[in-house]
Amino acid sequence: LLQSGRHIRLPGLKALRLNVSRADTRGVLIAFSRTEGPSRLNTTEKGKVGKIHLPREIFRSLSSQTVRVVVTVLNIQQLGMFEEINQTGQVLDNTVVGITVGESSISGLQEPVQLTFRHGELPQVSAVPALTAAPLAGQAGGWCSSGCVTQPGDKGTVCSCDHLTFFTLLLNPALDVSTARALMAVATTGCGVAMAFSIFTMAFCIFVRCRFRLEETVRTNLGLHLNLVGSLLLLNLAFLLSTGLAGRAPPSTCRVLGGLTHYCLLCCFTWTALEGCQLYLLFVKVLGTYIHHYLAKLCLLGWGFPALVVGVAGALGSYGEYSIQTMDQQAIAHLCWITSEHLLVHYITNCGYFGLIFLFNMAVFGVVTHKSCSLQDTGAVQGHRKPWKLALVAAGLFCLLGAAWAMAFLTYGISSAAVLYLFTVLNSLQGIFIFIWLVVLYYPKTKESTGSLSYIIRHDKTTTASQD
């Protein structure tokens, strides 16, 4: 439309058209900004504007005496353009700059085109400068740094490219080498410790179920906790295997380990959801909740549904070797997981699935907390219950319902190293937290047994029945 002479007005699009002669041996200087668009650069112009330098080589190689240069500045947030399904980075200021000279494609320049993107101080990210808008046959379009060299600075980044296309700065979350290695060391150590405490927790649950005469509700709760901790044990084991064998095992083995790790993660999420459903049945739908072979049916759902999801993802070829890269695009760690080409599978089956579970569990947690506080305020639940124990019960439920996993949403995009450390530590040490919580909550004591969660549930049932 621009080259045909028509004037178009779209929100978020600003364009400049100018004619340049072959006799111009100095090249062309153009300024651009997100708000004002492109314009011929005034040498006295100051401020936060980007700059484009088109070398004279471009114009000397053209056959015609005069060519038309079109520079377009796009606000992709308003236009909804250049959106990739698997894009994990963030476009700087949502701005893309397109450059065309004449009607032919220009590439392989000896003297590069220079684009200066003005910005403030950037967090620790990696910048990929160019977007390939016209890919070769058989290749998919997308962000690409081929043919470009990026030189970051404090107040701007200079991109030198040997071709003309659409350009931007894509900010990808990345880690420096020391932080990445430290996080991997913390995760590996934490997984080893969590495996040991998961075994202790499973042994404790089995001991309590077999040694003491407990109510059916408490036995069901312990069975749920046992399965959740078992899925955590398998997840930690699968993670250690996938990180230890990635890069050395055959591709088929890595695909199997990637599917196993994904399966264990989905099992953890599913059992977390079942914990929330159990609390809902106990506290919200108090009466008439007996289900024949209840725990067996939960096991079928908790271990069977993830297998179905992983089977479908495996049929799509989603598993393989995945690399964790640093800011300079160096692979610092390898693991068997969902490959980069199938990140949509990760977003749907992991992020989306857990997001729904977390919202439901937090709603259940709010109802449970409200009912417990109401019983406490009315004096219905009394005895030797201590405030620290009530706080521990609430914190344990919060962790049990997936609060630690929810911190993964804070690590997306541009996040600090402190958030990454906190997420890694909390999730790798879930086994320890659950072990302490279960011992304090469920170990029978003579006068403090009324302080358990089962007593609150039992009293709530009695109160509800008497009200009805």
Describe what this molecule looks like in 3D:
There is one protein chain. By secondary structure, the chain is α+β, with helices and mostly antiparallel strands. It has twelve helices and 15 strands. The strands form three sheets. Strands 1, 5, 6, 7, 9, 10 and 13 form a seven-stranded antiparallel beta sheet that branches.
Chain-wise SSE layout:
Layout: E1 13-21, E2 28-33, E3 37-40, E4 50-54, H1 56-60, E5 66-75, H2 76-79, E6 90-91, E7 95-101, E8 113-118, E9 125-132, E10 142-144, E11 148-152, E12 156-161, E13 166-173, H3 177-211, H4 216-245, H5 251-283, H6 294-315, E14 319-325, E15 331-338, H7 343-377, H8 387-400, H9 403-406, H10 417-428, H11 430-442, H12 453-467
Antiparallel strand pairs: 1-5, 2-3, 2-4, 4-8, 5-7, 6-13, 7-13, 8-12, 9-10, 9-13, 11-12, 14-15
Organism: Emberiza fucata
Transmembrane segments: 182-210, 222-240, 260-283, 295-319, 347-369, 390-412, 418-443
Domain G-protein coupled receptors family 2 profile: 187-442
